[in-house]
């Protein structure tokens, strides 16, 4: 794979994705690691990682004007090549219940998990993904050709509708269910353009979001995710898979 962009890469699953990608024997030539404050205190761990790997390029990504700036920054590094893989990882959780949920918390979840992550980001990076898909000698669908991976969650599955009483999380679940619909629509629309779209559930992972109670380490989850990504093909575009490659009902 020539190039990958990971959002929310200053901590948690995003930081570990960048770490493992950069350390891999088949490391991508360019790893674009985006976060809100690459130069601020929250970007420290990512800056330290980038200092060890020239393949990692830090890119600031906050809102729409900065997405356009990010596209230009990425384009200048790619020098006429396309972007192979876009991993929409940045996300925000919410524990609001049916009684406590309000429109502001609902909007905040949708703004980050659906509008920011998917509507704006995918629209702006689509030309670079299309360029990668048209690359010489590339056939079929794969993450090394052109792909959008949306980091989703099992609790956003309408089919499963897991543990509502223990973890109502209305804004989080609803926004991830909407994200899942976007994944399916994009998979159908972009298949013929050579772009794969898949949703991945990383498991319940020890991060700021997953908390210390989670059973999975971030290293373990990300190792699984990267193995799954390497196996994706036209058979698994429009799929919702967990970090072990098992199918999750939409
Ligand atoms: N951890 C789990 O158990 C679990 C389970 C299922 C799914 N997931 C999914 O996995 C993904 C990563 O989660 P994580 O556990 O690594 O979470 P995390 O440790 O809380 O990290 C979240 C990342 O998203 C970024 N982010 C949050 N709100 C943002 C916004 N409005 N604009 C831009 N970036 C924003 C954060 O940046 P800042 O540092 O700037 O806030 C941070 O980089 C999420 O999509 C989440 O839904 C996680």
TrEMBL record:
<dbReference type="GO" id="GO:0005737">
    <property type="term" value="C:cytoplasm"/>
</dbReference>
<protein>
    <recommendedName>
        <fullName>C-factor-like</fullName>
    </recommendedName>
</protein>
<comment type="similarity">
    <text>Belongs to the short-chain dehydrogenases/reductases (SDR) family.</text>
</comment>
<dbReference type="Pfam" id="PF00106">
    <property type="entry name" value="adh_short"/>
</dbReference>
<dbReference type="InterPro" id="IPR051468">
    <property type="entry name" value="Fungal_SecMetab_SDRs"/>
</dbReference>
<dbReference type="GO" id="GO:0016491">
    <property type="term" value="F:oxidoreductase activity"/>
</dbReference>
<dbReference type="InterPro" id="IPR002347">
    <property type="entry name" value="SDR_fam"/>
</dbReference>
<dbReference type="InterPro" id="IPR036291">
    <property type="entry name" value="NAD(P)-bd_dom_sf"/>
</dbReference>
């Amino acid at each position: 794979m020539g190039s990958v962009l990971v959002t929310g890469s200053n901590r948690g699953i995003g930081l570990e994705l960048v770490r493992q990608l950069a350390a891999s024997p088949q490391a991508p030539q360019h790893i674009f690691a985006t976060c809100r404050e690459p130069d601020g205190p929250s970007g420290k761990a990512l800056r330290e990682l980038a200092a060890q790997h020239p393949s990692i390029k830090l890119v600031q990504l906050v809102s729409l004007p900065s997405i356009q700036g990010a596209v230009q920054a990425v384009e200048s590094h790619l020098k006429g090549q396309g972007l192979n893989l876009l991993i929409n990882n940045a996300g925000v959780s919410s524990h609001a219940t049916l009684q406590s949920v309000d429109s502001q918390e609902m909007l905040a979840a949708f703004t980050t998990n659906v509008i920011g992550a998917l509507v704006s980001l995918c629209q702006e990076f689509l030309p670079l993904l299309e360029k990668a898909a048209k690359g010489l000698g590339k056939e079929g669908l794969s993450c090394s050709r052109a792909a959008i991976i949306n980091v989703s969650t099992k609790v956003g599955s309408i089919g499963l509708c897991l543990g509502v009483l223990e973890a109502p999380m209305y804004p989080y679940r609803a926004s991830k269910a909407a994200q899942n619909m976007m994944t399916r629509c994009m998979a159908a629309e972009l298949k013929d353009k050579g772009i794969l779209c898949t949703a991945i559930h990383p498991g319940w992972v020890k991060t700021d979001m997953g908390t210390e109670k989670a059973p999975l380490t971030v290293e373990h989850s990300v190792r699984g995710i990267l193995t799954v990504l390497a196996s994706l093909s036209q058979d698994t575009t429009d799929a919702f898979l967990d970090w072990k490659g098992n199918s999750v009902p939409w």
